[in-house]
């Protein structure tokens, strides 16, 4: 299960995308009687460049869910006045808001399932007892969805077009550009709602599985929008860094940053180690170095951790079994079993107030050259998110094998969701000569410079 889209300007936001299904040479290792594509997307009647201009002028332009005086008083009652004021001061210093979950929200977006609104109710038919394959594709420009089908368990059988060991779940989060295939077994003469709720809870896409057209089930109530804690910046509550020391504010006006130069992204891209790499880096906190990637990054998480076992913000606290990256396990080991010979580390950086997004603090227009992969080499790519936003990072032309603790059965993905203050590592076999795009798949982040070229030679 794949999809295609325009890479010219902001055409994708205007509907230049669609599913791309490739039948396997050999039968899939799971049975099903029906097969439906479920393509999720976001649509605005505004000109996409008008949307970009608004969030470039004010990053929170579409955030209509900011905290209120009531929220403040509740925080005082729960955490005390001192801690609450200190927390607000820290967010103010970063020029961010803890309710900044999505850059563009239901304030302008209509959320679609196979091009249809919730009111139009896309419907897939079934006979009781059939196994149905649902190919979920997130073809949106900017929206993460949390997907569930009340009353039905889902068995995840593929991720980004690659078969995995089946995982039985109640809900999964799908980042922009990701695909997940699930098997469901509806029974009885009743409908089931396919409910895709946006991560910021500002809207939803909805469809129905039903024995006949015209039927519909209830629509779940939307959950309370989540709020980011200081953990999103790699800090413990109360402003303490994870080693117990006071965490430094990542404000551009900090005295200890004066005179610091941002590290060249080309220098970072070329960071290598001649020694053999460990099989699984991560699983611990990694403190950020003295470089803050200024001025291209006003947000710098002090510590980054492996979060592959975490379902993500707003999930995992209601008893539902939620898919995590830790669950993904390839059905077969892949051909290249070499250990990585070197590492490349890239930092995901940004300034929400100015709506600048980049790698290593440099927009694409500011870098001097491509990231160099040697043809045929086996390398480890480390992605460290210094921002408080999720980023779906996409590599063209080659697979990324996610290092999630599955040994020789690492899952292959073309898009990796990197959470705030997360450190993710993947293995790459550079087997495709040429120039390849490497970018954040949030369309407006890409347009603002979160893009690089990878050259394999």
Number of helices: 5
Radius of gyration: 22 Å
Helix content: under 10%
CATH fold assignment of the largest domain: Immunoglobulin-like
Strand content: 25-35%
Bulk shape? globular
What structural class is derived from the secondary structure elements?
A: mainly beta
Q: Please state the oligomeric state of the protein chains shown.
A: single chain
CATH architecture of the largest domain: Sandwich
β-strand number: 28
- State the distance separating the first and last CA atoms: 29 Å
In this structure, how is the largest beta sheet organized? 6 strands, mixed
> If you average the pLDDT, what whole number results?
86
Counted up, domains total 2
In words, what does this structure look like?
By secondary structure, the chain is mostly beta strands. The chain folds into two domains: 2-46 and 106-210, Immunoglobulin-like, CATH 2.60.40; 230-456, Immunoglobulin-like (Sandwich). 10% of the residues lie in helices and 31% in strands. It has five helices and 28 strands. The strands form seven sheets. It has a six-stranded mixed beta sheet with strand order 4-3-6-11-8-9, with no helix packed on it. A six-stranded mixed beta sheet has the order 19-18-21-26-23-24. Strand 14 and strand 15 (240-241) form a beta hairpin. Helix 2 (69-79) packs across helix 3 (81-93). Mean pLDDT is 86; it is low at 236-283.
């Amino acid at each position: 299960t794949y999809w295609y889209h325009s890479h010219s300007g902001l055409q994708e936001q205007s509907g230049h995308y669609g599913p791309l299904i490739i039948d396997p040479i050999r039968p899939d290792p799971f049975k099903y009687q029906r097969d439906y594509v479920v393509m999720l997307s976001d649509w605005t009647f505004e000109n996409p460049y008008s949307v970009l201009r608004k969030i470039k002028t004010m990053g929170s332009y579409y955030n209509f869910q900011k905290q209120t005086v009531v929220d403040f008083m509740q925080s005082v009652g729960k955490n005390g006045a001192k801690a609450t004021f200190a927390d607000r001061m820290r967010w103010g210093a970063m020029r961010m808001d803890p309710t900044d979950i999505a850059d563009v929200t239901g304030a302008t977006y209509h959320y679609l399932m196979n091009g249809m609104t919730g009111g139009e109710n896309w419907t897939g038919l079934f006979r009781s007892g059939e196994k149905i394959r649902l190919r979920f594709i997130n073809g949106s420009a900017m929206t993460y969805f949390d997907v569930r089908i009340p009353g039905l368990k889902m068995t995840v059988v593929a991720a980004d077009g690659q078969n995995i060991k089946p995982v039985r779940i109640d809900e999964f989060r799908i980042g922009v550009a990701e695909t997940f295939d699930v098997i469901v077994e509806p029974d009885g003469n009743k409908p089931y709602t396919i409910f895709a709720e946006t991560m910021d809870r500002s809207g939803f896409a909805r469809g129905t599985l039903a024995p006949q057209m015209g039927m519909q089930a209830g629509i779940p109530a939307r959950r309370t929008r989540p709020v980011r804690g200081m953990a999103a910046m790699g800090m413990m509550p109360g402003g303490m860094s994870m080693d117990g020391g006071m965490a430094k504010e990542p404000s551009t006006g900090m005295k200890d940053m004066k005179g610091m130069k941002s590290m060249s992204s080309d220098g970072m891209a070329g960071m290598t180690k001649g020694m053999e790499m460990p099989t699984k880096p991560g699983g611990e906190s990694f403190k950020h170095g003295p470089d803050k990637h200024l001025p291209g990054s006003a947000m710098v998480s002090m510590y980054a951790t492996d979060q592959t076992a975490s379902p993500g913000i707003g999930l995992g606290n209601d008893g539902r079994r939620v898919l995590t990256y830790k669950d993904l396990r390839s059905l077969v080991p892949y051909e290249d079993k070499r250990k990585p010979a070197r590492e490349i580390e890239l930092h995901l950086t940004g300034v929400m107030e100015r709506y600048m997004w980049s790698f290593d603090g440099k927009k694409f227009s500011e870098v001097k050259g491509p990231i160099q992969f040697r043809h045929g080499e086996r390398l480890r790519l480390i992605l460290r998110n210094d921002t408080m936003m999720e980023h779906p990072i996409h590599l063209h032309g080659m697979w990324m094998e996610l290092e999630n603790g599955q040994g020789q059965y690492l899952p292959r993905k073309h898009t990796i969701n990197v959470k705030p203050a997360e450190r993710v590592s993947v293995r790459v076999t550079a087997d495709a000569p040429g120039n390849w795009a490497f970018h954040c798949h949030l369309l407006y982040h890409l347009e603002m410079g979160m893009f690089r070229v990878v050259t394999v030679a």
